């Protein structure tokens, strides 16, 4: 009954029709890296991954620093932060891949992997984001920049955090620590 209600709600907002066939974990998806090479999420199998849709001209852009700090603190324990630039909200990521990469490296020393700019909301959303909406429900759909999804080491989507949840918040850190590989 609950799945039927969820499927009806997702169909009503245009997310169900775009559901990737056969996807069961995050490892089933591929992005294009900011340098243009394919970036299969399966490359991160066995690690926890925090997927964050980012933007360079947003009030939340300073979260890049805390994301990099989080990555540096936990990467040796199996955390990957994955930045996913998007221009979906307020047109706050207008640049191309080279401009985004330079901005992130110059202003925040970003060393964590990043993808090419993609759509993260609506019918044109990247397949990962359509799958995440199906898995986590309509409340977990990004509504602004710096929305975060946490993927466990086995590829399951285990939590989400709204834009206002800082990367150094106790709630987010607790969830990351609970999902680091053992």
How would you characterize this protein structure?
The structure is a single chain. This protein has 182 residues and is an alpha+beta fold. The chain has one domain (2-179): Glutaredoxin. The chain is built from 5 helices and 6 strands, in the order H-E-E-E-H-E-H-H-E-E-H. It has helices at 2-12, 63-74, 97-108, 127-136, 170-179; strands spanning 30-32, 38-40, 48-54, 79-85, 148-151, 157-161. The strands form 2 sheets. The protein has a 4-stranded mixed sheet, sandwiched between helices. The longest helix is centred in the middle third of the chain and has 12 residues, at 63-74.
Taking pLDDT < 50 over at least 5 consecutive residues as the criterion, the unreliable ranges are 1-8, 10-20
User: Order of strands across the biggest sheet?
Assistant: 4-3-5-6
Just name the CATH architecture. Answer: 3-Layer(aba) Sandwich
Would you state the CATH class? Alpha Beta
Q: Roughly what is the average pLDDT, rounded to an integer? A: 91
Intertermini distance: 36 Å
Give the helix proportion (percent range): 25-40%
Q: What's the structural domain tally?
A: 1
Query: What's the name of the CATH homologous superfamily?
Result: Glutaredoxin
- Element order: H for helix, E for strand: HEEEHEHHEEH
CATH-assigned fold name: Glutaredoxin
What is this structure, in a nutshell?
The protein has 182 residues and is an alpha+beta fold. It is 30% helix and 16% strand.
